[in-house]
Amino acid sequence: MLAEILTFLTLVPGQVLCLLPMRNQLRFGPGRTLLTLALADALLLPGAAFLAFRLQVSYIWVLLPLLLVFWGIYQACLRCPACRSLSVYASVCALMEILNNAACAMESRIHPEYGGLTVSTDFALLKLAVYAAAAGLLCWPFLRYAPELVDRLEMPRIWYMTLPFSLAFIGMSLFLMPLKFETLFVNNVFRAFLFVLAFSLILWVLLHVMFYFVVSGILTAADQREKIQMLETQESQFAAQKRYMEDSARARHDFRQSVRTMKELFHHQQYEALGRYIDAFYEGLPSPDTVRYCENEALNALLNYYHRKAEDEKVRTAFKIDLPDRLPVSDVDICTIVGNILENGLLACGDVPEEARQLRLTLQLRPGGRLFLVATNTHGGNIRLRNGHYLSTRQRGEGLGLRSVLSIATRYGGTAEFSHDDREFVSDVMLPLR
Questions:
Q1: Which strand ranges, in their side-by-side order, compose the sheet holding 424-432?
Q2: Which of 52, 180, 268, 304 is 20 to 30 A from 1 via CA?
């Protein structure tokens, strides 16, 4: 019975590796999550060991459904989409299967009479040591680099594309696992087994390194596009401010001549003509093309950009911004949230008759350091939902804008909720800023 318990205890290092990339996606916090998994292990691992011992079946037939149960518990402890947790879970399982064959190679030198499915105390301790050593080596890269990808990569297709590779590693490792260690010492089988084992391990590492660099490049390009968009909106605001300054300078230059004209009209008691002249002069005064919504230059430029865009599309806007001069949130993040929500709002208003188009935005920092954003816009009824998620009406799949808003809010430990009725769509975002 002890051998069976130790055999199933080898799942624990894999669980640790699965949790490290999800450090920012834990639903209940680190302490509660670890306690949940510890209780699950305390109940399920001895139960699985007893079942395998009692039924006298190979532990692998109990292990496979147990892995499915653990993935369900794993996903329940996370707040990220299932595609990400499934990708990480399958990748770690693939690594564990490769390491299982490495343990088989070591054990075959000590007990050639054993096999890959042998349940024994010393073999279980060896596998536990190999898995723990691997977890210790991978702990730092999994904790340092993997969370960035899990937090920021918003494309489910890419996550699902990793599954065939992990499943291929698992299938190949199961196929290579020697049922009897004695067969490894026939001719050059043991040498070939080590070669395939080393090749599998190196390939697993290379694929993950390549995945990291490719996805990092995609995310960097996305960040650059957002920064370029911010610069374009600021450039547009700067051009409008420059025109206003030039017009103001021209008006000041001509002001002396206007005063002389009004003085002459007054002295000649041509009051009606003076009144018409003053009206014409007032109408000709330059007016600023930009509105000062807040002190954040990037956000102010973005709001002016969408205000002008709304005017062009005959959408009535109402922006209520109550923010301090400085915010403990990056300009890119706050502009991405506001920009995506306003962009989606304007697109939805395009399906509504001109007289009914409305877009309202309230953004304020409340006591306690919580930033609230509430936006409402009219829509024409073209709303698509699947499994509680809003889908894009312009392309297939889930809307990238709302998904980006939700990702940023989650990264700050906040919330992003979306709802609609038969007339309006509502976006409600809260960021707890520290």
A1: 316-322, 358-366, 370-378, 424-432, 415-420
A2: 180
The residue out of 186, 206, 223 marking a domain boundary is 186
Question: Do residues 308 and 163 share a domain?
Answer: no
Q: What amino acid occupies position 76?
A: A
- Higher pLDDT: 179 or 264? It is 179
Q: For the full predicted model, state whether its pTM sits above 0.85.
A: no
pLDDT, tens digit, 9 for 90 and up, residues 325-347: 777 788 778 888 888 889 888 88
Query: CA nearest 113: which of 189, 178, 180?
Result: 180
Which domain, by its residues, includes 336? 297-432
Tokens of 378: 């009219």
- The sign of the CA dihedral 287, 290, 293, 296 is negative
Q: Using 50, 70 and 90 to split pLDDT, how confident is the model at 288?
A: low
**In this structure, are strands 424-432 and 385-386 parallel, antiparallel, or unpaired?**
unpaired
Do residues 361 and 377 touch, judged by C-beta distance below 8 A?
Answer: no
